[in-house]
Write a structure and sequence with these properties.
Pfam families: Epimerase. It is built from ten helices and 13 strands. It has 324 residues and is α/β, with parallel strands linked by helices. The longest helix is centred in the middle third of the chain and has 22 residues. Bound molecules: nicotinamide-adenine-dinucleotide (NAD). The site of nicotinamide-adenine-dinucleotide (NAD) has 27 residues, from helix 1, strand 2, helix 4 and strand 5.
Length: 324
C-alpha cells in the first residue's frame, strides 16, 4: 500500500462526523496530517456525531467546522489543502425512496458540485470522493468491474452515480486542476457503523435479544468491507497517480446474510433472533467487487476477515455498553 505524504499542508474531510469520515480523520491525524473536518451534524447536539468524533475533538491537528456544504463558503476552508476527501452524503438505500429524496439530491449531488467548484477555484490537486457499490444495481452475480454498466436500482444509487460522474467529468475537462479518484465502497462495517446497517442491527439483536429484521430470504450476498481496509484504500487514493478514476473497494469475500447470522452467533456466543421481512426495493441479490483495479492502482489488499472484523465491532459495542 502506498503511503500519502502531505507535509505541512492540511487535508479536508467532509462528512467527518460520520462513520467512515471519522475513521479516515482518525487515521490522518494519527499519522501527523492536519485535518479540517466539515459536517452539518454538531457533536454538541447529536450523540452519534459526538461518539464518532470523540477521538478527534481537542487533538492539536484537528479542526471541526460544523456547517452544511450547501451553505458554507467553501473556498476559505479548502484554500491550500493538499487533498479533499469528500465523504459527506445522505447514505442508505431504503429512505431514499421516500420524502427524504430531496435531501439526498441536495447533499449527494448539489453539494458535490459545490465542492468541485471550490476545488477548481482554489486549485485543489486531488479530490477523493465516496462512491458506492450501489451504482452497479442488479448484477448477474459475478464480481462487478469498474467498466461494467452502472445501472443503479435505487434513488440513493442514482445520486451516488450522479455525484461520481460529476466528479470524473470535472476532472476530465481540459485544463482541470483537480484530479479525482472515486471509491466505490462495498458495505462498510466495523466500530461506529451506522445503526441502520446490517451488521450493526445483527449485533444489537445479540445484545438485546430483540429480533433483527432480515429483509428477503437471507440468500442475498454482500461483500462486507472492514472499515480499516476502506480507510487504507482511501488514504492511498490521495496520492496515487490518477487523473479521473473510479475504483472498487470491497472486502473480497461476499457472504450470504444467513451465513452472516451464523457467524455473528459464533462471534458473540449468543443466539441472533431474526424475523423475516419482505424484500426491500433497491436491495440487490448480490454485491461483489472485482478488486483487480484497486490492487493495481491503490495497492489495495483487504486484510480483515469477516469474523475478525465482526469480533472487533462486537468488542467495541459491548465495551461502550459497559461504560454507560
Ligand atoms: P454517515 O451517514 O455515517 O456519514 C455521512 C456524514 O455526512 C454525516 O455525518 C452527515 O451529517 C454528513 N453530511 C451529509 N450531508 C451533509 C451536508 N450537506 N453538509 C455537511 N455534512 C453532511 O455515512 P457513512 O456510512 O460514513 O458513509 C460515508 C460515505 O461513504 C457516504 O458518501 C456514503 O454514501 C459512502 N458509502 C458508504 C457505504 C457504507 O457501507 N457505509 C458504502 C458505500 C458508500
Amino acid at each position: 500500500m502506498r503511503v500519502e505524504r502531505v507535509g505541512a499542508r492540511a487535508v479536508v474531510v467532509t462528512g467527518v462526523a460520520g462513520f467512515l469520515g471519522s475513521h479516515v480523520a482518525d487515521a490522518l491525524v494519527a499519522r501527523g496530517t492536519r485535518v479540517v473536518g466539515i459536517d452539518r451534524r454538531s457533536p454538541a447536539r447529536d450523540a452519534t456525531a459526538a461518539a464518532n468524533l470523540a477521538g478527534l475533538l481537542g487533538r492539536p491537528g484537528f479542526r471541526l467546522v460544523v456547517a452544511d456544504l450547501n451553505r458554507v463558503p467553501l473556498e476559505p476552508l479548502l484554500e491550500g489543502a493538499a487533498h479533499v476527501y469528500h465523504l459527506a452524503a445522505v447514505a442508505g438505500v431504503r429512505a431514499s425512496w421516500g420524502r427524504e429524496f430531496a435531501d439526498y439530491v441536495a447533499c449527494n449531488v448539489v453539494a458535490t458540485q459545490r465542492v468541485l467548484a471550490a476545488c477548481a477555484n482554489v486549485g485543489t490537486p486531488r479530490l477523493v470522493v465516496a462512491s458506492s457499490s450501489s451504482v452497479y444495481g442488479t448484477t448477474g452475480g459475478d464480481p462487478s468491474r469498474e467498466d461494467h454498466p452502472a445501472l443503479p436500482a435505487s434513488p440513493y444509487g442514482m445520486t451516488k452515480l450522479a455525484a461520481e460522474r460529476l466528479c470524473l467529468e470535472h476532472a476530465r475537462r481540459p485544463g482541470a486542476t483537480t484530479a479525482v479518484v472515486a471509491l466505490r465502497y462495498f458495505t462498510l462495517y466495523g466500530p461506529r457503523q451506522r445503526t441502520d446497517m446490517m451488521i450493526s442491527r445483527v449485533l444489537r439483536a445479540a445484545l438485546t435479544g430483540e429480533p433483527v429484521h432480515l429483509f428477503g430470504d437471507g440468500t442475498q450476498r454482500r461483500d462486507f468491507t472492514y472499515v480499516a481496509d476502506a480507510v487504507s484504500a482511501t488514504l492511498a487514493a490521495g496520492s496515487v497517480p490518477a487523473r479521473a478514476e473510479a475504483v472498487n473497494v470491497g472486502g473480497g469475500a461476499p457472504v450470504r446474510l444467513h451465513d452472516l447470522l451464523d457467524l455473528a452467533a459464533d462471534v458473540t456466543g449468543r443466539p441472533i433472533p431474526a424475523v423475516h421481512a419482505a424484500p426491500q426495493p433497491g436491495d440487490v441479490a448480490v454485491t461483489a467487487a472485482d478488486l483487480a483495479k484497486s490492487r493495481a492502482l491503490l495497492g489495495y489488499r483487504p486484510s480483515t476477515a469477516l469474523a475478525e472484523g465482526v469480533a472487533r465491532q462486537w468488542e467495541v459495542l459491548t465495551a461502550d455498553r459497559a461504560a454507560l
